[in-house]
Amino acid sequence: MRPILVYTASRLGLFAVTLGVLYLIGLHNPLWLLVISFAISGIASYVLLSKQRDAVSRQISERHKG
User: Fold this and answer.
1) Exposed site from 36, 40, 42, 61, fewest CB < 10 Å?
2) Who contacts 7 (Cβ-Cβ below 8 Å, separation ≥6)?
3) Is-annotated flag, keyword Transmembrane (predicted)?
């Protein structure tokens, strides 16, 4: 269960950081702020969180084998 929690917390943290940075640079429209933050954090997590994603994948596949 730990890899899933680490991955989820990392995704949420990355989203929060992206949201904060975009707000600080002047994006104040709530809809655009959420949409752009979601897109940027999704792309960044694909690149930055590959080890965590692999660990989650391993854990899930091991559970379904046994």
Assistant:
1) 61
2) 49, 52, 53, 55, 56
3) yes
- Name the domain count of the chain: 1
- Measured CA distances, 19 to 10, 25, 43, 48 (Å): 14, 10, 14, 17
What is the pTM for the complete model shown?
A: 0.88
Structural domain harbouring 37: 2-65
The pLDDT mean for the chain works out to 95
Give me the long-range contacts of 16-25 (CB less than 8 A, separation at least 24).
Answer: 17/41, 18/44
